[in-house]
Amino acid sequence: MVSPQTIITLSYTCAIFTFILLIYNLFKYDRHDRSDYFFSLLCAVVFIQLISNIPLCAFRGLDQPWYPYIFKVAAYVQFGVGGILALIYTNYLCCYLQIAPYKRNMVRLGMFEYGAIYELLLLLNLKFGFYYTINSENEYVSGDFNLVAYILAGIPVIFDIFLFIKYRSNIYKNAWLGTLIHISLPLIGVFIQIKTGLPVSFCFAAIGVYVLFFNIKSEQAFLLERQQKELAESRISIMLSQIQPHFMYNSLTTIAALCDKNPQEAKKATLNFSRYLRKNIDSVNKRMPVPFSSELEHVSTYLELEKLRFDDRLKVIMDIQATDFLIPPLTIQPLAENAVKHGICNKTSGTGTLKISTREKADSYEITISDDGIGFETGQRPDDGKEHIGMENVRDRLKAMSNATMKVESIVGVGTIVTVNVPKKGSGENDNLGL
User: Fold this and answer.
1) What is the C-alpha end-to-end distance of the chain, expressed in Å?
2) What is the C-alpha R_g of the chain?
3) How distant, in Å, are the alpha carbons of 286, 291, 353, 403 from that of 327?
4) Are residues 205 and 262 both part of a single domain?
5) What residues contact 114, with CB distance under 8 A and at least 6 apart?
6) How high is the pLDDT of residue 241?
7) 386 burial class (0-12, 13-18, 19+ CB within 10 angstroms)?
8) Domains: count for the chain
9) Tell me, what's the pLDDT at 368?
10) Could you tell me if 309 and 252 are in contact, meaning their C-beta atoms sit under 8 angstroms apart?
11) What is the CATH number of the domain that holds 152?
12) CA dist., res. 190 & res. 412, Å (int)
């Protein structure tokens, strides 16, 4: 037979762990996440139940004037909080299973009615003692309908299992087992308590909370891994968006034409094209800024390929006065490509000039990409049926990785100037110097 001291120790231990979980969750609490709110309430209610379990074991059979009052209060709290616990947990489960709001409200209404009936019967028990009574020796005595109390306590658990089975497709398969375990543990505890008379049901409820906590953490780890995978896929998408099909087709066509006319130039162009593709692919896994000199080399490779196609129609001017700073990969090349494709290519006659310049300022490094192409209205989105997301991608990555800003100025018929300012301080001067 398990001694009362063992139950007290178990209750104390579970109470401590539950309190730690409660404090941890309060510090990590996300007010926009309702499941976080209900999990905190769950921990608080289980903690109260565990604390109330201690005097039920410690004061049983002891004769002190004030012991019966504590014993009666503890017994009522333990049973009374059970209905509240069922209501809170079902609300948590509705959020976790992502049940539709109108169905969730129906479930909450049903659980509220259940809780009201449960608490009313418990209040009536204080007068009629059909669930339990406290005798003169300060002992818990089961009433004629004591089993009914346990059955009523088990109904919400069975209902929660039903909800899980019905809506299990709304959660990840690797969370199924953990969810089923933490739902079922209180029911197992109730069954053991009925069979043995040991007040262990709330210890099982506490263990269910611990399983729930680890289930939440494992799911968060799974979601984080999935998000990282999606992020990697998005980086690949960004990279692929930079390798425009028209540029690939035009480059390969130009190289094919050179194979007969100038094999040596065709070989050089092939190597440049290979270098261009490799640079784009290598940039996919880079999460930190790279030296500007590396990005400049990539831009130069791209422009060498474009000059093969445009010949004397494209003039490139490099005015590089500063290179000792860092910049996100694949940011300058898309800007140069945008200038060639949308500015210079659309000129009806004459030579187009693309100028890339850098200079060091007191608190930043300035990069300027200018062209004398057709220009555009900066306040209007081009109505050509295409998604113009390249510039915004560049702007977002500059801001996120280097705290840099990008300014676009354009005049129709005159050209476009894009100015990028990379601060020496913000992402850190040492970072910009590569130290």
Assistant:
1) 69
2) 35
3) 12, 6, 24, 10
4) no
5) 83, 86, 87, 155, 156
6) 57
7) exposed
8) 2
9) 96
10) no
11) 1.20.1070.10
12) 79
Q: Distance between CA 359 and CA 323 in Å, rounded?
A: 8
Q: Tokens 């039903």: give the residue.
A: 162
Q: What is the mean pLDDT of residues 140-167?
A: 83
Q: How far apart are CA 152 and CA 194, in angstroms?
A: 13
| Per-residue confidence (pLDDT) for residue 62, from 0 to 100 | 66
Q: Of 17-31, 157-171, 175-189, 392-406, give the lowest mean pLDDT range.
A: 175-189
Q: For residue 228, is it within any domain? A: no
| Residue-range definition of the domain harbouring residue 349 | 243-432
Q: What is residue 370's predicted lDDT score, i.e. its pLDDT?
A: 94
Q: Which of 186, 220, 254 is the last residue of a domain?
A: 220
Domain boundary among 220, 253, 274: 220
Residue 227 belongs to some domain of the structure: no
Same domain, 204 and 256: no
| Within-domain flag for 238 | no
Residue 70's pLDDT is 78
The answer to whether 38 touches 95, Cβ cutoff 8 Å, is yes
Q: Report the residue count for the chain.
A: 435
Question: Do 196 and 341 belong to one domain?
Answer: no
Distance, CA of 374 to CA of 391 (rounded, Å): 17
Instruction: Determine, yes or no, domain membership for 289.
Output: yes
Query: What's the pLDDT band for 119 if we cut at 50, 70, 90?
Result: confident
pLDDT tens digits, one per residue of 305-322:
888 888 778 899 999 999
